[in-house]
Specification:
With 330 residues, the protein is α/β, with parallel strands linked by helices. It has one domain: Ribokinase (UDP-N-acetylmuramoyl-L-alanine:D-glutamate ligase, 3-Layer(aba) Sandwich), CATH 3.40.1190.20. The protein is built from 13 helices and 14 strands. Helix 3 packs across helix 12 and helix 12 runs antiparallel to helix 13. It is globular and about 50 Å long. About 2% of the residues have low confidence.
Length: 330
């Protein structure tokens, strides 16, 4: 099979979305604005309490979100015709992770295929991961997380050829087998000439594993993070600029800043959002837009502008995906 344009590794989960007030969070001892990790039994209690308030269940994970929106850009650009030679990866995009042998896993794989993403999944005994994304007034997010078997990934005997390999710091830093696998894959893919794209996530995790996180970030060719994550690592802009050849610093409503080859390259204003319903996936969509643009010969500045378009569009609906009516503006 020809080289994939994008190959991503993550912790596959099904995401359920519900609107709640802060009283619901405090009543169930959930920390506002954080990822609250728990077992399947406690998550089931929350699901029962929410009942019909759960609007939908959608395939989740940061890396998978990037894949979905990357494929969306491929579709808009007529990418299926250009990538038809890729056989079972018609849009040149594949996603890897670990699922159980349950109904959640079957649904996840089915939806990957529906979105045009090639599944490269490992299946083990146990429950697949599920996350409740609880949206409070104003669009804030609090997560109830049961990762199930999703961290039990083992490095494959043969890695696929790809133009770009994407992974997040959560996957790289978690104390589970997927961490060892993802680190080996970063090194292996880099030796094969793939562009290594890493998104730094979770300020709390980064702050607790600062030196380790910095060493991993230095392996990236393209690095994504926001201001909270930069602060957690104890970096100023001068130090951040030297961390990777190309760095995209996301600043929320203030837009983003590009650092290239050790110095500040450009400030990019935010693309105005028509409305803000749910900020889930804004950063993932930004990364998808940037990586698609770079893979298709766009400049670093053009890539940031496309990423900003995707991020702003994503916040106008529930869930991490783009709205059906999304089109790239010129």
């Amino acid at each position: 099979m020809p080289a994939l344009e994008l190959f991503a590794l993550g912790t596959p989960v099904m995401d359920g979305f519900a609107q709640v007030d802060e009283a619901f969070l405090s009543g169930h001892k959930l920390v506002l604005g954080s990822s609250n990790f728990m077992n399947n039994e406690r998550l089931a209690v929350l699901e029962k309490a929410l009942g019909p308030k759960i609007r939908s269940w959608e395939p989740g994970d940061n890396a998978r979100n990037v894949c979905e929106s990357y494929v969306r850009l491929q579709r808009l650009a007529g990418g299926k015709k250009n990538a038809a030679q890729a056989g079972d990866a018609p849009f040149g995009v594949a996603y890897a992770g670990t699922l159980g042998n349950d109904e959640t896993a079957a649904r996840f794989v089915s939806l990957l295929k529906t979105h045009g993403i090639k599944p490269m999944m490992q299946h083990v005994n146990g429950s697949s991961g599920r996350i409740l994304a609880l949206i409070t007034p104003g669009g804030g997010r609090t997560f109830a997380v049961s990762l199930g078997v999703s961290e039990q990934y083992a490095a494959p005997a043969q890695m696929p050829a790809c133009k770009c390999f994407f992974v997040t710091s959560i996957t790289l830093l978690t104390p589970a087998s997927i961490s060892r696998a993802s680190r080996a894959m970063v090194d292996g893919m880099k030796k094969e000439g793939a562009l290594i794209a890493i998104a730094l996530e979770s300020p709390a995790m980064l702050g607790g594993k600062r030196e380790e996180a910095l060493a991993l970030a230095a392996k990236a060719d393209v690095l994504f993070l926001n201001e909270e994550e930069m602060e957690a690592l104890g970096l100023d802009e001068e130090a951040l600029a030297k961390l990777a050849p190309l760095v995209y610093l996301k600043r929320g409503a203030a837009g983003s800043t590009i650092f290239k080859d050790g110095s500040k390259f450009a400030d990019v204003p935010v693309h105005p959002a028509k409305k803000v319903v749910d900020t889930t996936g804004a950063g993932d969509n930004y990364a998808a837009g940037v990586l698609w643009a770079l893979n298709h010969g766009k400049s670093e500045l053009e890539a940031a502008k496309i990423g900003s378009q995707l991020g702003s569009a994503a916040v106008g609906k529930f869930g991490a995906g783009l709205p059906n009516e999304f089109r790239l503006e010129k």
